[in-house]
Amino acid sequence: MTPADGGQVALIVKVATQLFAALGYDGTSTRQIAEAAGLNIATVNYHVGGKRELYLAVMERAHLAERTALEQAMARIGGADPVVAIHRLMDDYLDFCVDNPEIPALWMHRWLSDASDITELEREYVQPLIANVGAALLPAREAGVIDAGVDLEYTIWSAIWSIHGFAKGGVLDAEGRRRGAGDRAALRRFRAHLHQSLHRTLGLPGDAP
């Protein structure tokens, strides 16, 4: 692949990511992707294949970015203060979703049965990450830091649902205006709420940081 070809592939994947995140897989056509990239359909097909292949490439790229961010965050859980490390894990994931809002948007479309004929992504990408986060939290539960009766899997999912929802849709203020992650006050308030909710749900000792 020449540098020019690599540049076109990167452009196609970037544009496809934006459109799939905004419109969903079912609502996006290869023609739309080609037009947004300033290319013709034949060029898109030559470089990345059809829409299905392009979607799989987009989702793989999103997964690798998410996995890298989570692995870096989980590596800190074994530190001296597990409570601080657990909260830092949540902060890191929130920051990742705020900085990369297209990634939670892609997964939220799938929650609404987008690309329902492509069924392997949750099994290959999502379930291993959920299992890894649960495994990273398990020593804290075994040490009594996390309440033994907590359902870790559902706690993790609850955090994901909340963070994805805020990163994609924000919240409404008193006047009915949508305040998203770009609003510093809204982000600060949401972060504090997450800390309190996670702290109480996990039964962590002391006050939420």
| Gross CATH architecture of the domain at 59-202 | Orthogonal Bundle
Fraction of residues in β-strands:
under 5%
Radius of gyration: 19 Å
Mean pLDDT: 93
Going by helix content, strand content and strand pairing, the class is mainly alpha
Proportion of residues in helical segments: over 70%
Number of strands: 2
Shape: globular
Order of helices and strands: HHHHHHHHEEH
Distance between the termini: 50 Å
Oligomeric state = single chain
CATH topology of the domain at 59-202: Tetracycline Repressor, domain 2
- Counted by DSSP, the helix tally is 9
Organism: Nonomuraea wenchangensis
Protein name: Transcriptional regulator, TetR family
Domain HTH tetR-type: 6-66
GO molecular function: DNA-binding transcription factor activity; transcription cis-regulatory region binding
